[in-house]
Amino acid sequence: MIVFLQLMQIMKKLYLTIIYSTLACLAMAQTEINMPKIPQMRQLFHENIDNNQKAIIHLNNSTDSIFTATGNIDIDLQLTQILKVHINNLQAFVEQDSLLSESQKYIWLRGINDLLVSFIDSYKQKNIKGILLGDVIISFEEAMQAEINHQSIASIIDKNELEVASILTENFALQKNIGIQDCRNLLILKMCNRNPENILNILTRYPNMPFTDSLIAITALKHPEDVYDYAAAPNALGKKIAASTNPLTILISQMATSDNGRIFFPFLDNLFHHTITFDSITNALQQTDGYYKLLVATEIDYARRLEKKDTPLVMNVLKEKLRSVAIDNYINEINALHDEKIDAVRFKKADNLTPQEIYYLCVLAEEEIYTSSYLGLYNRMFLKMPIQRSDTLLQWVHKDFYKKFIKMAAAYNVLDDFLNKMDTTNSEKLIKNFVNNLDKNNSLEDAVDVADSYASINNETIKKNILIQVKYNLQQSSKYNNYRGEVIYGLLNQIFENINTNTTAVNSMLPNVMPPIYTMPISALKDSSGKIIVQQFFYGDKDGNTVFNSFLNNFNNANWKITKKPEWVEVRSRYGTPIVIYSNKPLDETKDLDALAQEDLAYYLDSIGVNPTITIHRGHSYYVKSTIKQLPPSSKIILLGSCGGYHSLNDVLTICPSAHIIASKQVGTGIVNITLIESMMETLRMGRDLNWPLFWKNMQTKFKGDYKEKFDDYIPPHKNLGAIFIMAYNNAMIK
Predict the structure, then answer these.
(1) Alpha carbons 361 and 368: distance in angstroms, whole number
(2) Which end is more exposed in the chain, N or C (fewer Cβ atoms within 10 Å of the end residue's Cβ)?
(3) pTM of the predicted model, to two decimals?
(4) DSSP secondary-structure letter at 328?
């Protein structure tokens, strides 16, 4: 880490040295010319130029004597020198050159002033960096000389940055240059090169550029979905795409303008390479499960190609289509039958699917799948295999999504079973690969999956192997000065090593990085008046009404006062810490009355300036997304009292990045939820902080038998390793 920072300092010094040398040469290239007597008729022009020179110097501070563009005094001095000397010399040149007519002198003086004004405006709008001031002035000198010699300035525009080129191209004095149209074309090309993901949006405004066809062809290869989206547009760019002679663009355009284009588009790569036909896709659509099976087969083929470093076109589109078909056609129906006692009826939809096809149902429906749905599909996946070997299954799918599958298997307590279905050597290798390369992509998803999985694993041998591999990767990251790797593996190492220790030990290991996760101070939950505000979400199905009534019964005692409103109830503490629990009534869901009650309650709380710091979800897992969408960002504690609420941590942290979350990995239970709620409220009412290890230890004594097993599936805030990792990583990268 230290070596990396030293290297960065050396590189920064080298960069500044190069910039300094360049600017020094530019500044020394001219000595200041004495200004001749200025005719009165042009004195105002010169005054404006002088004033704008001063305005640039004062852009960052009205008391500056130099333009503080970079924070490096040497560079800033050179920029200021260029501003003063070169601009003054341009003014003097205009006045001294006898070959310039009076009207030309006006034009050039206005051009010089326009140059400074444009830089000021761009700098204030943060569209140009201050260090480019030297390029702006020197390039204008070159352009001025070219224009006077009746030469094109296109080569000058071509060699400059977009920001500099834009100022020059729009300059008043250069508008009649013989190459001005080429300059404008170059500006568009520079915009496209600067924003390759936005090329077609740019070309929508400038569709008739000489390079439009070439850029469309390039975009078809790099961002084919963009070409698809623009191809059917009834505008000039849409016509350009339709008229293209590029084979890939033609194919995309054909799909975009057909009725079933979205059905065919995921297979673009195979269609383009003639390994599949439109007719074969159409035939698959006519068969039961045919389209899903074709999507899975294509996904597996693409995974095979990726292993060989061959990246197919629109892989992301294929994955999203596969995900939507898996959820819409299979998972939603299996979930809807969650009360069905006969598994053969509930899982009939998967009868004709292969183990590979069931595998993709599991990994692609992480957020939607119910616990019982996952476990039922997991069992059927292996029952359909002649020999139940999990490494064979992963070979069949070329390890596609295998890290996600391991994470889900751990979360649903079947990872031991999955690893036992392969040789020990293969299982150890799989775990190593699971932990490796977490720093190699822009997403944190794989690292969070590893953290979450570790918290869910009961097998000490597997946990030990994960920790060994984390330490190895940390050493490698340090060895090669990989800062992101050091942060990711350093945090995982510290979190895993200290998961079972006390607050002080963990927090001291992660100073200024790890937020306090072992304790929620009561002071952090109180508003300015000293109250703690709780918002509870209920839903209007049969179970919702039962749970709601249970909640009211449990708080119907001398310590609490219940006030009923048309759409919600308010439960207030009579003694101790002032606490108000606002809970919407579980009104008829078939008429969306429960949703309306939630909206009205949120509006009411906002209107009286109340911000909940505790949010509780009471309802089945298929309602949890609705609760998350309505989460108050002020929430400091969030209880997701539903099946599989644990799998929604990322969504919660996006809204409430420092929240302490309690959630179940599997079955959410009403008895467990109300006991948790009562215990939290009583602790707070008595004026005590929530010490999570102590609180959880006390909670464990309250459950026996089946309820103890169900409580054990709940994860307290200090054991939510994925959430802890995200918070710590974000803090570490800010430092």
Answers:
(1) 10
(2) C
(3) 0.70
(4) I
